[in-house]
Amino acid sequence: MDIMKFEILEENDEVVKVDANQVHVKKSSGEYVIYTLKLDEADQVVDFNVFAITKGFGSIELSKDADLNDLAELWDSSDE
Questions:
Q1: Distances (CA, A) of 52 to 16, 40, 41
Q2: How far is CA 56 from the centre of its chain?
């Protein structure tokens, strides 16, 4: 058995739904995030993508080859 612990929630965040390889999270700050797990041929998680809707002024940003530090910066900048 494999156990994957995905520590993505902060206080008052809510998992809205889990659908196949997608985890939908509504953050307490109002942002909405969809984490899409990337699986290999053996259905093992090898990576994930993040689609985040945050507060802002209509801009769209795409970060290719992002890492966990980029994800942390995303949440830090949306809290400002």
A1: 14, 24, 27
A2: 18
pLDDT tens track for 7-60: 888 899 999 999 989 999 999 888 899 999 998 998 888 888 999 888 878 888
Q: Is the dihedral of CA 45, 5, 69, 15 positive or negative?
A: positive
SS3 74: helix
Global pTM value? 0.76
Query: Which residue shows structure tokens 């990337």?
Result: 38
- In angstroms, the CA 75 to CA 33 distance is 11
CA distance 28 to 61: 22
Query: What residues have CB less than 8 Å from 64, skipping those under 6 apart?
Result: none
H-type alpha helices, 1-80: 68-78
